[in-house]
Amino acid sequence: MVPTDLRYTNDHEWVRVDGDEATIGITAYAADQLGDIVFVELPDPGRTVTQAAAFGVVESVKAVSDLFAPVTGDVVEANAELGGKPELVNSDPYGAGWMIRITLVDASQLDALLDADAYDALIAAG
Question: Long-range contacts: 89-93, Cβ < 8 Å, 24+?
């Protein structure tokens, strides 16, 4: 099930916006495709992430994949719990498995992202 309150990238990241703060993670589809997540590397607070640029790495039993920022902003928090429990990305990708929180720089960048219906169509197409 694809949450309707999020925006999505073609690379399977999601973003949830609350005021000028945005929470970013990877989708359940991406987590499922990667398999069991064993390691997550995230940026430290204070770093700026740029839309469509890599901001971190997720490693699974199957592959190592870059994480791409859906929007530009300054990192205010990285999910420290993933350091000891990277499997949260698999078990709760839209909740406890979030990756980073940022201060959103340009809300108009959200317009370039997919809504839930478009993302559903993307994963249905394979």
Answer: 89/25, 89/26, 89/31, 89/37, 89/40, 89/58, 90/31, 90/32, 90/36, 90/37, 93/25, 93/26, 93/27, 93/28, 93/30, 93/31
27 in the Ramachandran plot: left (φ > 0), alpha (ψ -120 to 50) or beta? Answer: beta
pTM of the shown model: 0.96
Q: Using one digit for the tens of pLDDT, what is the confidence trace for 108-123?
A: 999 999 999 999 999 9
CA distances 64 to 17, 38, 105, 118, Å, are 27, 10, 29, 26
Q: Which residues, other chains included, contact 91 with Cβ-Cβ below 8 Å and sequence gap of 6+?
A: 97
- What would the pLDDT profile of 38-57 be if each residue is shown by its tens digit? 999 999 999 999 999 999 99
CA 65 centroid distance within chain: 12
Report the alpha-carbon distance of residue 104 to residue 73 in Å, rounded.
5
